[in-house]
Amino acid sequence: MAAGVAAWLPFARAAAIGWMPVANMPMPVAPSEKNKRQDELIILNVSGRRFQTWRNTLDRYPDTLLGSSEKEFFYNEESKEYFFDRDPDVFRSVLNFYRTGKLHFPRYECITSYDEELAFFGIIPEIIGDCCYEEYKDRKRENAERLMDDQEDNKDAKLPNMTFRETMWRAFENPHTSTMALVFYYVTGFFIAVSVITNVVETVPCGSSPNQKEVPCGERYTVAFFCMDTACVMIFTVEYLMRLFAAPSRYRFMRSVMSIIDVVAILPYYIGLVMTDNEDVSGAFVTLRVFRVFRIFKFSRHSQGLRILGYTLKSCASELGFLLFSLTMAIIIFATVMFYAEKGSSSSKFTSIPASFWYTIVTMTTLGYGDMVPKTIAGKIFGSICSLSGVLVIALPVPVIVSNFSRIYHQNQRADKRRAQKKARLARIRISKTGSAVQSSAFLHSKRNGLFNEALELTVRPDQRLSKSTSLLESQHHHLLHCLEKTTVSEHHHRKFCLSNLQKNHEFVDEQYYQQSYLEAGMQNYPSRSPSLSSQDGVTGTCCTRRSKKHHKPLPNTSAPAHIPPLKHTHQLGLQELSTIHIQPLSTSRSSLNMRVDEQAPLNCQSSQITTAIISIPTPPVTTPEGDAHLPAGPAHQNVVKVSAL
Amino acid sequence: MCSPSKRTQWREELQHFRKDCGFSKKVLLNCCLVRRIITLVSPNPKDSVEDELELSAVRHRPEGLEQLEAQTRFSRKELQILYRGFKNECPSGIVNEETFKEIYAQFFPQGDATTYAHFLFNAFDTDHNGSVSFEDFVMGLSILLRGTVQEKLNWAFNLYDINKDGFITKEEMLDIMKAIYDMMGKCTYPVLREEAPRQHVEVFFQKMDKNKDGVVTIDEFIDCCQNDENIMRSMHLFENVL
Known about the structure:
The structure holds two protein chains of two kinds. By secondary structure, chain A is mostly helical. Chain A is built from 22 helices and seven strands. Chain A has a four-stranded mixed β-sheet. In chain A, strands 6-7 form a two-stranded antiparallel ribbon. In chain A, strand 3 (75-76) and strand 4 form a beta hairpin. In chain A, helix 10 packs across helix 12. Helices cover 67% and strands 6% of the residues of chain B. In chain B, the strands form two sheets. Chain B has a two-stranded antiparallel ribbon with strand order 1-2. In chain B, strands 3-5 form a two-stranded antiparallel ribbon. In chain B, helix 7 (114-124) packs across helix 10 (170-184), helix 9 (149-160) packs across helix 12 and helix 10 (170-184) packs across helix 11. The radius of gyration of chain B is 23 Å and the shape is globular. The two termini of chain B are 33 Å apart. Chains A and B meet through helix 1, helix 2, helix 20, strand 5 and helix 21 of A and helix 5, helix 8, helix 9, helix 10 and strand 4 of B. Strand 5 (507-508) of chain A pairs antiparallel with strand 4 of chain B. Chain A: The chain crosses the membrane at residues 180-201, 221-241, 253-275, 320-341, 353-369, 381-402. Chain A: Residues 527-563 are annotated as: Disordered. Chain A: It is a multi-pass membrane protein.
């Protein structure tokens, strides 16, 4: 719950009196406020800077350090204040979180130090307010990428014992690691270039024999070109197979883009070999040769810029899609308009709307070939509008793509620069560390070891207690919701419907349970109860005939909005209402949660079952107005208390 | 939302203006007309800027602590605590209906509390000026938390009587009931049927409407509630809230 709203809880509870005359059922008992202290100011001394606040302010978030009793560990008896040896600047944000309920991320702060402070004070960063969350996430991502880059650099280092396979893979991925790898890199690059040039030159018309028309070189020097092609393909095949052998995860390698390009590059040759010189398939064969141009994509292993371009296009897929979509829309509109505008003129090239598409595209991209031009005045007007709007539509998504490209490119530049500077930096650090005399270094060494041991003991913090007492605020809020449930009563059902279970009041359930129970099963009687909770099964035998409905799910203990199903048992004669109400944690998933202690109104039967996380709270039974004294012997019920520690 | 108060503000300003500068009435009317035309024609941002200025200019300071202490049944310390919480959430000193709905809705995340919050707002806004000041707030709370049972029932009746005519009709009750059931939201167990509020209203009227004339008057209401144990007990439920 937001901090400020917590202050309004008394008002909400008071306003609940508005439901009372309407309710037909008795209200649950309000949680008592034991030892209600007067609010007091407490002093938080953070590295010398004193902050003061009300104790209640801190109690708003009981699952953080300051809100729980964990802060007692930092209490300083002599000065009667809580001393924290942390950064006072970041503490400002932390304390403001308690005051206003919103956590802000100051821009000048380093992201890692901020994270550390938040972790220390037990606040999850997901509750940073919307105003600062973008910034936080961006910075975090940048930082993570930077760290990843640093880690990747470490990967370059040769591990002591690498198998031949691993060495080969490393050589393939990082050509600058060994001379052989570099040679291989350049050789493949050379052959890719040769192959591409061959494909291009193949189609150039070479000299012609006097009686024939010009033939392309490919048909004139068939054998030579075939040999070249064979050589290139052999190199590429060998390279592909070697990569396949060396890849740590062959399946993943085969799925990667680069390997697919490799395969597509060499496949046409093999298919051409296999296929006979059949007239029918020669058309298809020609098409396959087109795929040979994909060999040029193999250059992307050799050029980082190309890879960045590809990555940019992939990351800007949505902008590109938008561009395409808006262009298509505009093309269709203008083509239609031009078609109808030019319909009147004679010998118009705008024979149909699809024919006008070509004109529209050429005009919008400001190419203007001139093979189709409007002749009517209306056509010319719309044509000019078309060209103007084309410029606009194309210019819009382009800056986004450009900025993305620039960001990624600069990132890569930075990575390279950092790698280059790293050696120098490490050397400098080493010098400064070993600057002191030899004996002091030994002393520091031993001291560091001692400290390390100490730190070990301290870091084992007292584990979160299983059964945490929930805050008064939470229990009051839950009581309020409980009252609301009791107010919205369904009809009193006749007593003759003994065998069926009819609910008396509505309860809050969570989405999942609701969907499961109702949209699938309908309101049927649920047959069995799960035996996992030790229940007083035997006792039901003595009760009057009714089927009890039990729904039990295992105790959730996540910090996400956990679903807790209602566990409900009704007595037909409408005398007792037992409901274990599990109210969904009220805060959103971005804030910290605490689940409540359920209150239960048991019958006179023995009800206390205590397991590690299940506690029953006996409260006096409440009878409905029409109660005869026919109280059945205790039906089984579950008093379930779900507590969670975060 | 602000137009009635804006109009009165203009009128007041106009009156002062007239007095100060001795313009004729006609001239002023024309100015008013011109102003109206301009506001009609000009785009919304201008309006919202004026609205914002107005809202930020509204700073309501409550009456003194002693006066409030005299008027309500809260002690000084309790008033201090209440005001601190109030001011935290509404720094301008008054709550308008939107903020009220937002605050109330936070307590009932699963359902839609806005309708009920609307009725609640009207119940707290005793002078019907569209906003709840701290005095209204505290007076209401004083009745709810420290009032006699009679006063509480009176307050509840006032809440249910939407048009404040002294009678609760079935339609009014149905509206209130629907608002309450809306707060439960969709995911309940068992499923809330469409006619659940209506049935509930029938039950309510059966109980309360003694002379079966289709409306519940304040006397019938209070009588019936005083005879109902549950209701009587629940009235005392929230007494230790503050």
